[in-house]
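Notebook entry, structure prediction.
Reason for the run: the old model in the group folder had no record of what sequence produced it. Starting over properly, with the input documented here first.
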Amino acid sequence: MRVTAARLVDHGQPLHVEEVDLAEPGPQEVTMQVAFAGVNPVDMYAAQGQVAADAPVPRTLGTEGAGTVDGRRVMAHGHGIGTARDGLWASAAVVPRAALTDVPDGVGLREAAAMGVAGVTAWRTVTELARVQAGDTVLVLGASGGVGSAIVSAAHSLGATVIGQTGDEGNAGWIRQRGADHVVVADAGRLAGAVAGQHPTVAFDGLGDGFTGAVIEALEPHGRLVLFGTSAGPDGQVPLRSLYRKGITVLGYAGLLEPDDVMAAALRDALQALASGQMSVAVDAAMPLAEVNEAFDRIRQRRVHGKIVLDAAGRGS
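New structure, fully documented this time:
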């Protein structure tokens, strides 16, 4: 069987979109017809050789996707997909049967394709780590991003007051549409002042760099800080006196360390939250598979509201 796939041939070079032969599935594998596949920063890091550098090359990338297996609507994620074995940026893929999760009624395949990373991260950090409640005031950094915007929606559904941060005034209206009660347009140096008087009790930081220290200064005593990414920079200074004098709890999300069965259960929970309206995931665009390198460019340049998915079946957005 011939399929069209986005292949990593050399680290640090553009992906090759080409036809390849798809192997026959083994005893515990199935052939999945891929409809849409999510594009995540971790895929970009893999293409650069910063993640899974010792994984086989060439290979098809893509760690999450949604489609059908014998007419069954499914999501695939984990079990080495896109890293130790070929991934889902293809019109069809051979995947382990254990990697499949049913997509519930009311959830489109386009949205399901964005749930394996962004959706699960958002739902788990809000409900398991931070344990957000109706009385909380939640500050979400990078609120226009894939995870950030999903966190906004989830915290809003739980009844919390939500403050969304962005560095671009043009994002403010869109962030409010996701469920933010307030939006602050501020860089790291102005963040604490921008939220003064709003008394955040919980903060979600996927930016790092100078933002982490600024969030600690902004949080209320006994506040909870959840770290899940460093898109602005991997290093930063932490105001230790404020950290311990305020009794701030710092919680790190380590989804990459979790076993596949734990992540599968989390994915089922997140998909149910999506189906019930407790959370939403925003898909900015469904780009053709042939435009995968352009999708990387948009992520690098932060020209994305929510998530980008690849249209592997040519269905359009």
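Summary: The domain at 117-255 is CATH 3.40.50.720 (Rossmann fold).
The old model has been moved to the deprecated folder.
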